[in-house]
Amino acid sequence: MLVLSLFLMPLIGVNFLADDEQKMVMATYTPEPGETHKEAKAVASDAEKMISKRNGIETYQYSLGGSSPLASMGMGGGDNSALFFIEYDKDYKNFSEESTKIIKDLNKQTDVGEWKSMDFASMGSGLELYVYGDNLTDIQKASDKVENILKDNKDLEKVDSSISEAYDQYTLVANQKKLSEYGLTTAQIGMALADNKDSSPLTTVKHNGDDVNVYVEVEKDDYDNIKELKKKKIETPLGTTVEIGDVVDVKEGKSPDTVQRKDGKLYASVKADIKTNDAGAVSDAVQKKIDKLDLPDGVNIDFGGVTEDINDSFTQLGLAMLAAIAIVYFVLVVTFHGALAPFAILFSLPFTVIGSLVALWIAGEPLSVSAMIGALMLIGIVVTNAIVLVDRVIHKEKEGFTTREALLEAGATRLRPILMTALATVGALIPLAIGIEGGGLISKGLGITVIGGLISSTLLTLVIVPIVYEVLAKFRKKRKINE
Asked: Is residue 463 helix, strand or coil?
């Protein structure tokens, strides 16, 4: 039964956190490359007017620019990005369609930039891949391949790359031969094109007791395209003028909207939302296709997002379980003054897996962090039933009963309290298991795991633990006879 229950894993699936619907939507605005802060502010203001008139919205708030959490979430857009938090009334109907509708309406009234949604339900189930490389060109090529893989996966949606939006970039390469003919240097070309934003004040005057810097306002050069910039004239030491285009070569290219670094390495991120409960299976499928990619030299791809969360969390919880078992065993050894009884008691733990996996499968819940926390709790809960049983056996053995007689007497005597404690615990967890007031880590996955594991371990403890105890007792007796 224990081995067969493990075959349920592919059917159950693995996820970081279970998706609990919350009636809240995040609408994010990513401006077009080159869009000014003033233009982005106007777009956000228009969006606020539309959202404020929408039915069903209880509260909303938005941020624009550097204070926006968007940058920390790796969504790009820089100082001109906007983020709206929109909370709907609890009784709002057809909420599942609202996210798509509101984004569609926002994009309809916006000529530039793009609105996207990031529902809270999807924040714990997004797939993210980091593409590291030595230069942006190689990263762009690899990111495009990864993006295509994610788009081809039917279990993924809303695929997006951090470098999908890019500026047109022009590199001016100085022609040293032509510069020398006019008596110019590369630095002079750079100074002629510099914006000079940090110009020095002309003087300082007193105004209402405060020092006020005085600047001379000069007309700034404005270029509609690269051709106009190339026609800009600069003076030479010979007293003549020359167009910049005559002394430089122009190379065209693309520059990403944002440049990201992680651990000192240049990288881009490719994200997608997972539509199923089995994030682990989706990650495995994507990994297999990425392993077959022919990547440029120096480029490597790592998983982030939900895959990284699952690996980190499950590893930490696995270590916590091992530590919990070791502590429980140590306490039992000290309490029972020997290693035999504690070892028999620990045999009740593996059989919690049977009930837990079967319960998750029946309920349609994935194996998540919440379920793993439930499994960690079971280590302490389950051993109590075995302790109650074995403690009675040991007392009867001291009274002169044989091991078999002691086991039979303890099984009959302790059956009622064992079932009472198990049923009481199961009853207390039923509200959580059926989803009443559950959310986040404390979700129904935890309740289902504990209930299933407790039922199977309780029933099997009454059979497995006595058998193991009697087998170990025979070995102990043989060893004493030999001694």
From this structure: helix
More confident residue, 254 or 187: 187
Going from the C-alpha of 459 to that of each of 351, 382, 389, the distances in angstroms are 9, 11, 13
Cα–Cα dist 2/354, whole Å: 6
CA dist 143 → 128, 135, 293 (Å): 12, 12, 11
Structure token pair of residue 154: 């039917």
φ, ψ for residue 222 (rounded to 5)? -130, 130
| Spatial distance between the Cα atoms of 28 and 259, rounded to a whole number of angstroms | 19
| pLDDT value, residue 225 | 77
**Hey, how many other C-beta atoms are within 10 angstroms of the C-beta on 57?**
18
Return d(Cα 449, Cα 368) in angstroms, integer.
Answer: 10
pLDDT tens digits for range 48-97: 989 888 888 888 888 887 544 444 444 444 567 888 888 888 777 777 67
Rounded to two decimals, what is the model's pTM? Answer: 0.53
Q: Is the pLDDT of residue 465 over 80?
A: yes
Task: Collect all residues with Cβ–Cβ distance below 8 Å to 224 and sequence separation of at least 6.
Answer: none
Please check whether residue 249 is in contact with residue 173, taking contact to mean a CB–CB distance below 8 angstroms: yes
Residue 107: phi and psi, rounded to 5, are: -65, -30
Q: Are strands 114-117 and 24-30 parallel, antiparallel or unpaired?
A: antiparallel
| Tokens 């994200």, residue located | 271
Helical pair 369-398 and 352-363, crossing angle rounded to 10 deg: 150
pLDDT tier at 166, thresholds 50, 70, 90: low
The answer to whether the beta carbons of residues 275 and 164 sit under 8 Å apart is no
What is the per-residue pLDDT across 405-445, written as a single tens digit (0 to 9) for each?
888 898 888 888 888 888 888 888 888 777 665 444 456 77
What is d(CA 350, CA 368) in angstroms, rounded to the nearest whole number?
19
DSSP per-residue letters across 196-248:
-TTPPPSEEEEETTEEEEE----PPP--SSHHHHHT-EEE-TTS-EEEGGGTE
The pair of three-digit structure tokens given for residue 428, joined into one six-digit string: 């207390």
Query: What pLDDT is recorded for position 198?
Result: 56
- CA 72 → CA 19, 75, 79, 83, 312, distances in Å? 23, 8, 12, 12, 20
Q: Tell the burial category of 281 from Cβ atoms under 10 Å away from its Cβ (0-12, 13-18, 19+).
A: middle
Please report how the helices 403-433 and 369-398 are oriented relative to each other, as an axis angle in degrees rounded to 10.
150
